[in-house]
Amino acid sequence: MVVLTLGPISELNSDYSMDCYFRQYWRDERLKFTSSDSLKEIALNNLMLDMIWKPDTYFHNGKEYYVHTLTTANKLLRLSPNGDVTYSMRFTIRAQCPMKLTFYPADAQSCPLIIGSFAYQSHDLLYHWHKEGVKKENGLTMPQFELVSHPFRNFFAEFEVGFKRENYSMVRVDFQLQRRMGYFLLQIYLPCMLIVVLSWVSFWLNREATERLTLGITAFLTLATTNQDQKDILPKTSFPTALECASIIQFAAVHFFTKTGFEEINLPPETSTDTEDDWENVYSSEHDQTYGKMANSNHKFSNHIGAGVGGKYPNDKVANHTGSNHRDVRFKVRDDVEDYSSRAGKESGCQKFIYCITGNEEYRTELIKRGKHRGSSINSVSTLDRMSRIKSVYEYIIATTSANA
């Protein structure tokens, strides 16, 4: 067999087409003749094919087949003095190719072509390849695949005929194909890389910013559209890809660890008997009306507050500061905030991962409490965002390089 062209190869239909010269050799003792110096081989007309015996060769995994007839039937028949018959023809065949698309588009396919007899069993007819059974035409190229090798072999196969199994002699060639990545790099990978890099801008935005949500949704929809365009040329597979599994896990993990404590803070009512005057500065109305120095009092009040915040009250819940022109300035420092800050965030990364996988409800409740205790920093830039600004870049480069290796 001499392969002239190979392709097109259809992932949607799981088949491939091939144009080749197919030659068969057999010996028929009834066709012997006496040779001479002027007659060592006889070239017979194609019409003689209907008058001699020939093997009923068929293609086990073939779908369509036709012999070229331009400008005449492309067949050759020759007879040697010892009864050897050479039968050659050119045809195009479309054969089935079971494809594994798990690693698409960085995949490799093996497309077989199985040849044998339709009716004769192995004890009647044997098939075997010539020493150079399968060759390819020089300059054979394909736009999307590269023909790496084409190993061939002889084998026996059993088929159930009626109520018994019969043994048949067959030959087989496997076309080992490696997909070229040039098209996918230019049309899919590079655009998706640019979209992903653009989405990293969200790591520099606060989590409550509207622009962050819009940027994430736009990037997701663009990637989903690009992915859907490629699925239109692929069969509807029932198995999930590694990328889909990773996406589900990572979204669940990010939601579990970061989307906690995003509600309004409802502090429990204090049991203290302090009045409102204990929390804020209450100026003497008589003093304000007489001297009209509200601004000066406010300035002093601010200074007192600043001095009070700078001070340390490890055990007191209420701090007092007395000014010369106003009543006591009081504010409360919650001891549990300081105590809690010393306890929070001591879990190791392994413990956090185990809590996430097992869905530990106590740990989740603890995260919500931490979000409440952070107060005004609940919606600030998270530690995860700051880490992702650097970590995501390196992880994306490593993952992309490993997938294409």
UniProtKB/TrEMBL annotation:
Keyword check for Membrane: yes
Membrane topology summary: Multi-pass membrane protein
Gene3D superfamilies per the UniProt record, alphabetical: Neurotransmitter-gated ion-channel ligand-binding domain (2.70.170.10), Neurotransmitter-gated ion-channel transmembrane domain (1.20.58.390)
Sequence ranges assigned to domain Neurotransmitter-gated ion-channel ligand-binding in this UniProt record: 3-181
Residue ranges constituting the Neurotransmitter-gated ion-channel transmembrane domain according to the UniProt record: 188-300
Keyword Cytoplasm assigned: no
Subcellular location(s) of the protein: Membrane
Primary localization: membrane
UniProt-recorded Gene Ontology molecular function terms: extracellular ligand-gated monoatomic ion channel activity; transmembrane signaling receptor activity
Transmembrane regions listed in the UniProt entry: 182-205
SUPFAM superfamilies named in the record: Neurotransmitter-gated ion-channel transmembrane pore (SSF90112), Nicotinic receptor ligand binding domain-like (SSF63712)
Protein name (record): Gamma-aminobutyric acid receptor subunit alpha-6
Family note: Belongs to the ligand-gated ion channel (TC 1.A.9) family.
GO annotations of cellular component type: membrane
Keywords: Ion channel, Ion transport, Membrane, Receptor, Transmembrane, Transmembrane helix, Transport
Organism (species): Hypsibius exemplaris
